[in-house]
Design a protein that fits this description.
It is built from 11 helices and no strands. Helix 3 packs parallel to helix 6, helix 7 (about 155-165) packs antiparallel against helix 8 and helix 9 (about 180-205) runs parallel beside helix 10. By secondary structure, it is mainly α.
């Protein structure tokens, strides 16, 4: 059930993000100052914001930003985690110890605070948000892959490949790392939700995507001063973030239960 619900929510978000210009004809940057803060109408189903911009059009455009950040962060983090975790788990010894200490240091700090510090140092932009989130996101994948590799390197077929003279990189890439792919896929699905929330948080603080590019976090920030007279400015972006994050969490839980039924509740 979780898998179906999550897949449906994510699929809807992807379709809306890709087909946004054909679904919503309004320009997300066009302003109608005379109608600013107007509530939902037939012409503007979700109302207008503080500058008279169509909220529905901005939500659709913001969905593309959220999904782009999520995919980019998860892809880079998972790739780095596979490489670093695979090397640490397969090499062992001082290599594993050194990498483990670096991971422990990074995990000792709250991730969002490190992201804020990196974006503040690099400058607020979409590219720097991806860099900052990926710079701290690979740690979880590395620990996960390391644990999988420590278990897989003792499998009989891995020992057989070694005895036949296969090089360490070949054994690692062809025989050891594939055993970690299912766990990484589940982690990546759940990581999408975390990346979307982190991007919204940074945009809410003014450190993410810069105007006039729509962002759900920036929309929440802009609606804070109108909570009483125009609550639709914050309600709709908040609901959009909640549904997309819920969808990825359901999808990750469903995939985990399919891949490893022993963890099913």
């Amino acid at each position: 059930m979780n898998l179906r619900i999550g897949l449906a929510l994510v699929a809807i978000a992807v379709v809306v993000a890709l087909a946004g210009p054909w679904i919503v004809a309004a320009d997300p940057r066009a302003q109608e100052l005379a109608l600013r803060l107007a509530g939902p109408t037939l012409a503007h189903p979700l109302g207008l914001d503080e500058l008279g911009r169509d909220i529905l059009a901005r939500l659709v455009a913001g969905a593309r930003v959220s999904l782009l950040v999520g995919v980019a962060v998860v892809s880079v983090s998972a790739l780095l985690g596979l490489v670093v975790g695979g090397i640490a788990g397969y090499a062992g010894g001082w290599v594993d110890t050194a990498i483990g200490r670096v991971i422990d240091v990074l995990m000792a700090f709250p991730g969002i605070l490190l992201a804020i510090a990196l974006v503040a140092a690099l400058g607020p932009s979409l590219r720097n948000v991806v860099i900052a989130l990926a710079a701290i996101g690979w740690v979880g994948y590395a620990r996960l892959v390391r644990g999988q590799v420590l278990k897989a390197r003792e499998f009989e077929y891995v020992q057989a490949a070694r005895s036949l003279g296969a090089s360490a990189p070949r054994v690692l890439v062809r025989h050891v790392l594939p055993s970690a792919y299912p766990a990484v896929i589940v982690q990546a699905t759940l990581g999408m939700a975390g990346a979307i929330v982190a991007e919204a948080s940074l945009s809410f603080l003014g450190l993410g995507v810069q105007p006039p590019t729509p962002s759900w976090g920036a929309m929440l920030d802009a609606g804070r001063s109108h909570l009483l007279d125009a609550p639709h400015l914050t309600i709709f972006p908040g609901v959009a973030i909640a549904l997309l994050v819920l969808g990825f969490n359901f999808l990750g839980d469903g995939l985990r239960d399919r891949i490893d039924p022993r963890q099913s509740r």
